[in-house]
Design brief:
Keywords: Hydrolase, Signal. This protein is α+β, with helices and mostly antiparallel strands. Helices cover about 35% and strands about 15% of the residues. The chain is globular. The N terminus is likely disordered.
């Protein structure tokens, strides 16, 4: 498979670039690094239990943590901690879909009906592209489930969900809008369907395809798709969810272990800051997709949105555009962005306390990392 060769060459080059950058890091960067640590501390102050980050620039790699790894304990967040990445998984899945497009196994304009006949009402009008860029109009499955702080949320903690169950649950609701492609509405259901389409096209699960095409070639040794496995192996911060008490108020419940099948193709992955940085560096460098499909990945379905085919972008205050994605896995939140030239990258993982505006603090940290 030509993607693997291209990926291996690019990944090897990336290692050499990082080594050279580390060697060049002898110049003092104390003020900048102190600013990064201060920004990460501000994320915790804004409402997090713990946070960890990796920033890569021309001077090398900075890795830092703030807060604690577990409520009620003093143990620091492990700098190499594993965490659930939530919707950052979608960028990996979209990469596989676009590789299959490149190989002629499917087309962006193929309809859902052509791959999954009878599964989706109006499926003959919804395309693979519209599933990728969230313009299908299909309702999102997540809001149909009990969610924190509802105590009923915990009843599903160990439940195994199949893709068919999740899709059927979502499609019991009407579409968000009638004409596919006419508007944007974020839908995890669309990515669950994409996982099924990958299996139909290849005969292998989306997890096997991500492992074979992305994780193994890039040597992302601390990245995996757990399926129904409930544990996060290796060092990790604990994650929590808020649950209402019977006598009023709410409490944080340790939700580090749970059955991630509910997130499925759109959000089940576990990774590290180092691995996510590496993935986005290789992706944006053309190591996983040819240029015309990487351009498609950056093209929004709706001009007013900044969501392409599984890839998000934002413009920083210094005028530099960054590409990546963010993800909410309930007890964990992840953010990973890179400049187009890959000279600056930043990945942050947070275990939220569900108090305050963490997003604003994280994006302030991202801006600090990118703009200096």
């Amino acid at each position: 498979m030509r993607h693997v060769l291209r990926t291996l060459v690019t990944a090897t080059t990336a290692v050499a670039v990082m080594a050279a950058s580390a060697a060049a890091a002898a110049a003092p960067q104390d003020a900048y690094r102190a600013g990064l640590q201060g920004g990460l501390d501000e994320v915790v102050t804004a409402g997090a239990i713990g946070a960890l980050a990796q920033v890569r620039d021309a001077h090398g790699v900075w890795r830092g943590t703030s807060g604690v790894a577990e409520v009620g304990r003093t143990r620091a967040v492990p700098v190499d901690g594993r965490f659930r990445v939530g919707s950052v998984t979608k960028t990996f899945l979209a990469t596989v879909v676009l590789q299959l497009v490149d190989e002629g196994e499917l087309r962006l304009e193929d309809t859902v009906e052509s791959w999954l006949p009878g599964v989706v009402p109006n499926g003959h009008h919804i395309t693979v592209r519209q599933l990728l860029d969230h313009t299908s109009g299909l309702p999102d499955v997540i809001p149909t489930l009990p969610l924190p702080p509802d105590p009923a949320f915990l009843e599903n903690r160990w439940r195994t969900w199949t893709a068919a169950e999740l899709v059927a649950r979502a499609l019991a609701n009407p579409p968000v809008f009638e004409e596919p492609g006419s508007a944007f509405s974020y839908s995890n259901t669309g990515y669950t369907l994409l996982g099924q389409i990958i299996e139909k096209a290849t005969g292998k699960s989306y997890a096997r395809q991500i492992e074979r095409r992305v994780i193994r070639p890039l040597r992302l040794d601390d990245t995996w798709l757990p399926g129904t496995s409930t544990r996060i192996r290796g060092p990790r911060p604990h994650g929590y969810v808020p649950i209402e008490r019977q006598n009023g108020g709410w409490q944080l419940v340790d939700y580090t272990e749970m059955n991630p099948s509910v997130f499925g193709a759109g959000g089940e992955m576990i990774s590290t800051t180092k691995d996510l940085d590496r993935f986005f560096a290789v992706l944006l460098g053309g190591g996983l997709l040819p240029g015309h499909l990487l351009d498609e990945m950056k093209t929004p379905g709706v001009e007013t949105r900044r969501y392409g085919l599984g890839l998000v972008w934002r413009d920083t205050p210094c005028g530099v555009r960054v590409y990546g994605n963010d993800g909410d896995a309930l007890a964990y939140q992840a953010y990973s962005f890179s400049t187009q030239d890959r000279r600056r990258q930043v990945t942050v993982a947070v275990t939220p306390r569900f108090e305050g505006d963490i997003d604003a603090a994280v994006y302030a940290f991202v801006d600090k990392a990118i703009c200096g």
